[in-house]
Amino acid sequence: MDDRERRIVDVLIALQPGEVTTYGDIADMAGYPKHSRLVGRILQATEIEVPWWRVVNAAGRLVPGHEGEQTKLLLEEDVIIRNGNVKSAPYGRFSGF
Q1: Which domain holds residue 79?
Q2: Is residue 97 part of a domain?
Q3: What CA–CA distance (Å, rounded) separates 63 from 83?
Q4: Separation between Cα atoms, residue 1 and residue 15, nearest integer Å
Q5: What CATH number is attached to the domain comprising 63?
Q6: Structural domains of the chain, count
Q7: Which of 11, 27, 39, 83 is the most exposed place for a label (fewest CB within 10 A)?
C-alpha cells in the first residue's frame, strides 16, 4: 500500500457511526484535494475493512448498484435517505439538513 492509499484508508477508518461524507471530502482530509476519483478506486480495491457505506457523492447519492445495502446500513446509523440520496445525517457533511 502506498502513502496515498494509506492516508485515504486512515481517513475512511476514522469515520464514525452516523457520519456521512463525500469522496471529495475524504480526499481533502487525506491531503489530496480534487482526487475524489482516487478515493472511489481505493474503496473498490482495498482489502481493508472500511465503512464504505458512509461515503456518497457530492449530491448525497448512494453508491450505484449498492443502494439497498447502503441504505440499510445508513438507516441503522440514524441517517435519513430519500429517493436514493442522503437527506440528513447525525454527523458530517449532511448533518443539520
Answers
A1: 3-92
A2: no
A3: 13
A4: 20
A5: 1.10.10.10
A6: 1
A7: 83
